[in-house]
Amino acid sequence: MRSKERTDIYTRVTNEIVAAIEAGAGSWTMPWHHDGSATSRPINAGTGKAYRGSNILSLWIAAQAAGYSSGRWASYRQWQALGAQVRKGEQATTIVFWKVNDRGEDADDRDSEQEGRGRARMFARGYSVFNEAQVEGYAPPTIDLLSDDARMRNADIFWGNLGIECRHGGNEAYYIPSEDRVQMPPFAQFREPAAYYGTLFHEGLHATGAASRCDRDLSGRFGSDRYAAEEAIADLGAALVMADLGIAHHPRPDHAAYIASWLRVLKADARAIFTLASKAQAAADWMHTQQPEQLSVAA
Question: Which of 63, 143, 163, 296 has its CA 20 to 30 A from that of 212?
Answer without folding.
Answer: 296
